[in-house]
Structures are given as C-alpha cells and as structure tokens.
Amino acid sequence: MAEAWAVHTVDRRLGSRQLAALLTGTAGERPGYRALAHAVRTLLLDGRIPLHTRLPAERELAAALSVSRATVTAAYDVLREGGYARSRRGAGTWTELPEGRRPSSVAAFPAGDDVLDLAVAAPGAPEAELAAALAGASELLVEHAPTPGYHPYGIPELRAAVADRFTRRGLPTLPDQILVTTGAQHALSLTLALLGRPGDRVLVENPSYPNALDAIRGAGLRAVPVPVTDDGWDSGLVESSLRQAAPRIAYLVPDFQNPTGCLMPREQRVRILETARATGTWLLIDETIADIALDGPPPAPFASLAPHGAGEQVVTVGSLSKSHWGGLRIGWVRAGSRLITELAMARVPVDMATPVIEQLVALHLLRGMNEVLRERLPRLREQRDALAASLARHLPEWRWRLPPGGLSLWVDLGRPVASSLARAALAHGVRIEGGARFGADPGTHEHRLRVPFTLPPELSEQAAVRLAAAAAGDLRLTGDDTGRRPWVA
Ligand SMILES: Cc1ncc(COP(=O)(O)O)c(C=O)c1O
C-alpha cells in the first residue's frame, strides 16, 4: 500500500458528527470497539465513507458517540490491523483497503455458447424500426454521397434534431450547441480530456458507471467519490465534497443512475447547481439512461433547472444506446457553442467525425423516438418485474429496491462474495459483473451484484435458477482472496 499512498493525498476529512450520523443504526447505541470497527469497515466497503478519508480524531469521535476514548482507540487499532486504516503520527488516521481487494471483471473471462449475458445493461435493437431507418438513410445518402462526408460537429440535420428534442423537453437548444459523437462514452472521454488536466479532481458517484470511472482515471484525473445508496444521494455530502475538494468537474448520472437506478429529486439538482456555481465546478451530466423512465414521466434535462445564464457550466451527454441500440454508436454533447467548437477541434485528431450513414439512421430513429419508447418501456417494465419475481423465488435472501427506471437491479447479496459469485455464475452459464466493478474506490461494493433486466422473462427465470445454483456453491468471501480473515456483513 506504500506506493498507493504515495499517489494519494488525503484531501477529505470526515467530521465526528458526520461519522456519528453515518453510524446511527449500524453500530448500536454505545458500541463496543469491535462493533465500532465493524461498522466503519462496512461503511467503507459500501462506499459510504470514501477511501483515503481522514477519520475524526479519537477524542472527538468518542465525545460524539458518548463512548470512552479507549473504545475509539481500540476500534482504530482493529481497523489498522485489518488493513482498513493507516495512521501517521501527527497526521491522523485515514481509511485504507487491504492489499488484494481489487475489482475483477467478468470481461476477462471467455463466454461460451449458451451463456446468458447479464454483464451489459443494454437492450437489443428495435429491429423493425432499425430496418426502416436503414432504408430511409440510404435514400438520404444520395444528398451526402457527392460531398467529402467529414462532419466533425455532426451532420447539420442530426444536430438540429438533437437540439430540437432538448428544446421540446424544456431546454431551449440551438444546433450549434450540439456535437454528435461516437456514443456517450466518446462524449465523456472528450469532455474530460478538454476540461480536466492531469491531477485535477473530479467528483464522482460511488458506485458509478465503470467505463466513465476508467476514463477519469485514464485522463489522470483524481476521483473524489460521494456515495449513492439505495436511498439516493445525500445532498449534504455532495455539497460538502464540492466545497471541500472544489473539484474541477463533477460527473453525475442523475437519471436512473447506473448501477443503482436512483432518480435524483429536483430539489437536489437545484442545490447541486447552486453549489457547483459557487465552487466553479463544471457539471458533467450523463443523461444516457434518461429515456428509460419506467414508473413516471421522463425527467426534464438537468440543465433546464439552471438559472438563466448559469447553464453554460453544465455539459450534458446523451446517447441512443439505451433508447435504441448501443451498436449504433451515436451519442452527443450539449454545451455552450464555444465549448462545442473546442470539443470538435479536439475530436478531429482522434476520429475525424462520426460516420454519416449511422447519423442518417439515427436521424430517422430520433424522429420516431416516441413510438419506439411506447413499445420499449412497457416491455422493460415487464422484464424488470419478472426478474424481481424470479430472484425473489430462487434467491429469497437477496435484497434490492425496485428502481423507477434504468435497466438493472442493484442487488445486495448480504455478504461480500460478488467476485466469487460472478466467477461461479460463469461456470453455470451466466455472465455477470460483481459490484466491485462499479466501485469508485477499488474493493468496495463486493456484496453487490448488478442484475440487468434486459432478458425476456423466460430467460431471466433461467438466469435466476443458474445464479441460485452458483450461489449454493462454495463461495469465497473477499477476505479469503487477500489471505486475511474473511469479513462477513
Ligand atoms: C451512464 C452511462 N453512460 C454512458 C454509457 C455509454 O453509452 P454509449 O454506448 O452511448 O457509449 C452507458 C452505457 O452503459 C451508461 O450506462
């Protein structure tokens, strides 16, 4: 861990009252030192206390919890012994994770035939509409074919159609505020690289979308995680993190967050907008999943809540991958027109432009978007409810909150066995990601599993049967992987 420490500076601290509030209900009324250590470790592994966060001074925490100082000292000792904390004289105690707690991903494991793929939370294409859009695109291609076909900003008609959709959703937008990209992932990478410099801080949700986290790390940016629990975001924590860390960028997925499925309430959005304005933080808002609203109307664009003139600080990313098909590789950025120009200039050395034929297909699909969603959303709702029923039948000890949208359940397994379970599941014919893959701090969320409801009901029933068979096997607690004492929730 010595090298890890060398690249991390402790720039976050947890106050004694903040920690006492987090411990309420988890550590008992007046916890003994073991219960206290256990509760802090659980909060850390759950992502609710970030890694490399300075814990309160012993005396302060003892006062806040009405326990003796010796209890806190002993609890910190237990945490240090387990590799969950480090101390340095004069510098205090901060959270750590034992060596070896690294996320593993099933992407590294080959999948055979007959494998049910739950590793990706994305639906297949609406086939009839896609065929019709392809036919329509080939007609429009006649106008484009005589031109060179390089459009770093996107073809004008698609930029106009994306802008028009924002406008109809309540956020007036001009075509020159839109950049067409090769999927949302491209949009995220471009924006992070343009707005951030290596070493800059980026506030991220924990857990979050792993490819965005990888892009943040890849750009040399430093993630500042804030927890998203089954109850959603904690406004106070988001605001204090913004104020304490003054990150350059905050990357948020407010609409049916991946993987938790949470939908951020309007008041929280307004408060985050206000705070980010005060701290000069760019808000990078990922609306890739916004159309998958299963229990109510789709949310308005985040940027539509910004007071007049403050919206320039919000960069919105979107995509057709969830509403239509990831194979299209069509996404976009909405921002101020100056930033769009800079992004277009930055993308030229990378990919020159997005293919014209795919853009023409996307244009057709966008025009018929409401019809596609009218068919798609009820089916996803049915699949969500069927998956929940199958899991409840075959894995009654698993827990989850039914999300109001998105494409997956964020399941609490009750014990930290997700990596081991994911490996066992592959042997039983299910490909699925363990929760650690989504942790902004490596090694957290090992007791979670993201289970997409992208399969039809009969297949998700089969997947649940296979998962139950895998779970009935001899699963290794993560603690075993590290050669340390297993930790049991
Ligand atoms: C939150 C989020 N952002 C971005 C993406 C990537 O989307 P695209 O396929 O358009 O690159 C995904 C895909 O799963 C996602 O869930």
Structural notes for this entry:
It is built from 18 helices and 16 strands. Helix content is 44%, strand content 14%. With 489 residues, it is of the alpha/beta class. The relative contact order is 0.14. The strands form five sheets. It has an eight-stranded mixed β-sheet, sandwiched between helices. The longest helix is centred in the C-terminal third of the chain and has 26 residues, at 369-394. The protein has helices spanning 2-7, 16-23, 33-45, 58-65, 69-81, 127-144, 156-168, 183-195, 210-218, 235-245, 266-279, 321-325, 337-351, 356-367, 369-394, 418-427, 457-472, 478-481, and strands at 12-13, 53-54, 85-88, 92-95, 116-118, 178-181, 201-206, 222-229, 232-233, 249-252, 282-286, 314-319, 331-334, 408-412, 430-432, 448-452. The chain folds into three domains: 2-95, Winged helix-like DNA-binding domain superfamily/Winged helix DNA-binding domain (Arc Repressor Mutant, subunit A), CATH 1.10.10; 106-121 and 371-481, Aspartate Aminotransferase, domain 1, CATH 3.90.1150.10; 127-367, Type I PLP-dependent aspartate aminotransferase-like (Major domain) (Aspartate Aminotransferase, domain 2), CATH 3.40.640.10. Bound molecules: pyridoxal-5'-phosphate. Pyridoxal-5'-phosphate (PLP) binds at residues 122, 183-185, 209, 212, 253, 258, 286, 288-289, 319, 321, 326, 331.
